[in-house]
Amino acid sequence: MNKQIVFAICGCLFFISGFSQTKSIEGLLNEISQNNTELKAYQSFIESRQLENKSNNNLPDPQFSGYYLPFGDNTTDAYSEYQISQSFEFPTVYGARSKWNELKRSQLKTSFVKRNQELLLKAKINIVEVVFLIKQKEIEVKRRTHSKQVYNQILELYNKEQVGVLDLNKAKIAWIQEQFVVEQIEGEIQILQLKLEKLNGGNPVTGLSSEIVSLNEIGTLERLWNEKLDKDPLLQELKANEAVSFQKVKLEKNKVMPNLALGYNYQGVRGSSYAGFYGGISIPLWNSKNKVKAAQANFDYQLSNTEVVTTSLYLQFQESFNRYQILLKKFNEYQQTLSELDSEALLFKAYTLGEFSFMSYYIELQFYQNASDKMHQMEKELQLLKAQILKHKL
After folding, report:
1. What mean pLDDT do residues 250-255 have?
2. pLDDT band at 185, cuts 50/70/90?
3. So what's the architecture of 29-393 in CATH?
4. CB neighbourhood size of 232 (10 A)
5. With contact defined as beta carbons under 8 Å apart, do 268 and 80 qualify?
């Protein structure tokens, strides 16, 4: 009983240890999003733009002017005058501009989400590439082991003078080629891991394994497109551009109203002076000319652009979805056929039992290995297509 408890505890600890070392793709992408230096810099840029937009809605600085006129042909003391005034746009302009700034703030946030998504898609593609290289390496290591065993057998037969040097050289070349393939894959993995490290703000990306990606149903075209309409930052950016340009029309219409000025004025000489309030108004004849029309034209463009881009995106999305479905069906058929055959293992067993010559074994092996590699490549293409289709969920 005690032994069973100990084994159960050890098993749990082993499971927890393995789980903690292997991360999900979502966890890795979240880590990259938090550590990426480009995104951090873009956040600072957004903050500076928000402050700049906010400052554009400030009142102009107050003005102070004065005169002291002691010279001239007069019979009184020196004349003096000063004035303090504050100019401002028509009050409704500030409300319209404040709303405009708030919409531009949302526009900047959408732009950040869009950039974050593009970066995460790039990271996810690199992760998928690394994962499939790890899978391929596992396959090639097994093939290298088999090649080594075959070479040792051929070498033993050669020493017994049962095979010629030609077979021995071919077996050795096959073994060397497998060693080179494994080394090449290791180099490619290292390059991609460095790219991921750069995306992760210089921090190593750990927890990658061949088990963190899987193929499954992604849903219907209609459901996915509706999700994309609600969540995709590119489409959200189009809507934000519409809102900003529409508010710009309202702002320009309010700016047609005259600017105002209020202040205090003093005039006088010793023993006699005048003081009172100052008021001024601008006549909006030239400054606002064609600005409302320009803002309206930009809004009309944004509406048309949204329609054009959305239609184009839907066609691309539909094409990617159909490609995924066709390739997935083909992959499932391919996988089922190869898994039922288990050809490489059967060939190796037949060869070790002496049922095949080396050349016959090698030719048959190349055929099945090429088929297996093609299936492996199809699986990777499916994962990359899936990443593109589900980009809006990043």
Report:
1. 91
2. very high
3. Up-down Bundle (1.20)
4. 21
5. yes
What angle, rounded to 10 degrees, do the helices at 291-341 and 358-389 form?
150
Closest CA to 322 of 268, 375, 389, 259: 389
The residue assigned the tokens 């080179």 is 180
Average pLDDT, stretch 70-78?
77
Model pTM? Answer: 0.79
Burial code (b: 16+ CB inside 10 Å, e: under 16) for 103-120 equals bbbebbbbbbbbbbbebb
pLDDT tens, position by position, 5-61: 433 434 443 333 333 345 678 888 889 999 999 999 998 999 998 898 889 888 888
The residue written with tokens 């733009």 in the block is: 49
Instruction: Give the chain's length.
Output: 394
Which residue type, as a one-letter code, is found at position 362?
A: Y
One-letter-per-residue 3-state SS of 292-308: HHHHHHHHHHHHHHHHH
